[in-house]
What we know:
This protein is of the alpha+beta class and 758 residues long.
Amino acid sequence: MTNYPFAIHYEATSRTFHLQNDNLSYIxxxxxxxxLLQLYFGKPIxxxxxxxxxxxxxxxxxxxxxxxxxSSYSYENVxxxxxxxxxxxxxxxxxxxxQENGATVTDFRYQSHRIFxxxxxxxxxxxxxVKNPEEAWTLEIQLLDALTNVTxxxxxxxxxxxxxxxxxxxxxxxxxxxxxxxxxxxxxxxLDLPDKxxxxxxxxxxxxxxxEIEERPLAHGxxxxxxxxxxxSPHHNPFAALKRxxxxxxxxxxxxxxxxxxxxxxxxxxxxxxxxxxxxxxxHPEGFSWQLLPGTSFQAPEALLVYTDKGxxxxxxxFHKLLQKRVARGQWRDQARPILLNNWEATYFDxxxxxxxxxAQTAKEVGVELFVLDDGWFGQRTSDRxxxxxxxxxxxxLPNGIAGLSQKIAxxxxxxxxxxxxxxxxxxxxxxxxxxxWIIHTPHRQQSQYRNQYVLNFAxxxxxxxxxxxxxxxxxxxxxxxxxxxxxxxxxxxFDSSRPASQQGEIYHRYILGVYALYERLTSEFPQILFxxxxxxxxxxxxxxxxxxxxxxTSDNSDAICRLKIQYGTSLVYPVSAxxxxxxxxxxxxxxxxxxxxxRAAVALFGTFGYELDLNQLTSEEIAxxxxxxxxxxxxRDLLQFGRFYRLxxxxxxxxxxxxxxxxxxxxxxxPDQRKAIVGFFQILNKVDEPFNWVxxxxxxxxxxxxxxxxxxxxxxxxxxxxxMAIGIDTRKDSTTTxxxxxxxxxxxxxxxVLEAE
Length: 758
Ligand code: DGJ
């Protein structure tokens, strides 16, 4: 195999840029008119001084040419890097700026560039980062729209080959002219591809069924996913992949992108009449505009772009590594996560200090490490009708306040975590009574609510500051090790009463900047606290949130069988260490299903793991199982949370390289040194006279000998890695552990196999 240099080349004579490493090549060229063209993105190719022979172009009837008396050059069918609105490229633009006279045409042309080792921060925004300059090269290309004197700085960071084939892209506009401009569209990524022979893979869903995999072939016109809800949303995760139809988990070309951003987004693939594909990702232009006054800049968020020819698993591994190591930050980034007990499904709003302490006491006895007090501890919050916005302890329920309770929890030997929903307010609250104008609402229009709550205008600094003061006080005075940051409704009737008409298009973005600013203040002041983000479960599960909170509550749906699809889909982009997963009670509170305790644990083990039930309601047999589950997690959690994750069998019968009928799900994690692996196998319905059913494993060392210990009899079998990957495990084999419960062969049963090599 050729070793390609990890480099960004620039050839002055041909004005060519080549981002190159062992995983990819990304080639651009400046044409005779100064436009920045895309020449190639894909498998690495060797560098040359000139790639202009790769430029292809055809004229078409009805195209507009840029040349007078010469119809031979139009951008309509040219692959571009930063397509302008309103000129000869009549596809979807990357940029649209409105001048004072109302004109919206731009003409961005190459002006200069710089290449440097490492990567710079994006002010006020989450983004990938490097630990030292050797980890990445960055290319900044400055384009100029001469008429308005606006520069666009396109930034491309190529990460070292150890991070896989991944590029971070963003763009900044600076107004060096003297007009008051309005930016109406600025997409972070615009990538032109020469053909349309791809399947579009997306993660769609809703509350409690987040991130289910859907795929379809690309077709002429636009296929898009988006959010206009003010948060990235459970309906469409800001991710899409373009995979070749023959690509599957282990082989084939995949191009994929995700957004390091948590607000409104648009992700689309537009296929034109000659089958070229334009993949774009950015802040959704609808409801967006940004006043760009002379001397000011606007920074668009970062998009991550992956290329691999090794299938969907390599795509996921590339996202996992970067998100886990170079997007997530802080002390908890690389640490195995504490096993927690959250009281939400155990008590909902119905708790007293005594009841909480009783649960915590049992939690300690079974081996839980962190007790989390969820909603209902503050203000007049005894139901969802009141209290949001008043972050002071409810003295009726917690006579010793949070400080007192947290001390008592600490005395039991547990860490303590607390729930907040910082961005929201109930009308029945002190905060609302004092500041009714702080909610997002449009004057003289209906004020819509969800769950009796309203969204605070985080576009206003004083609002963010008030919430910061309240939260920081609690975090300072109590012993708090963990914060669950919830967000339970979308934004409606958006309007920013603190700003003039010319800035009303800024509210959604300013809102999310306010959320980021609060996260930044709290995570800097309380670096020891583990933050978990949440938005009615997985309603804001995105790379932007992971920058502040290294884990997120994956879904409010805690049913083990529903979780198979949710966690499988989520794993396309996000690592196991980011996925909050809890064992809950049966019948399950969301779907009413009865599943074995062992299966509930086996699914949640591939996550940050915890319990969301009243341990005091369990039988002594169940408590014994819980103890074994926790002991198992403690023994294996580094591997489970930080090992390499492989999807083996898809719960989505026919999509994304999955095979089978969707009745089985299998996945596994493999240690970096390939000496240990854990396989999870889950079946929905049991079968009579079951046919042989082998699951092929992945990621093992072919020549290592792996020992599998099964079942209560402790039978051991030794396989070679190549056997396990070529032939697999017969799924009728007993589990390595069922946590002390008898091995069940029933509906919703599961098997866990631990494989160990010398
Ligand atoms: C929604 C969250 O997803 C739940 O886990 C819980 O925290 C509730 N909100 C509390 O209101």
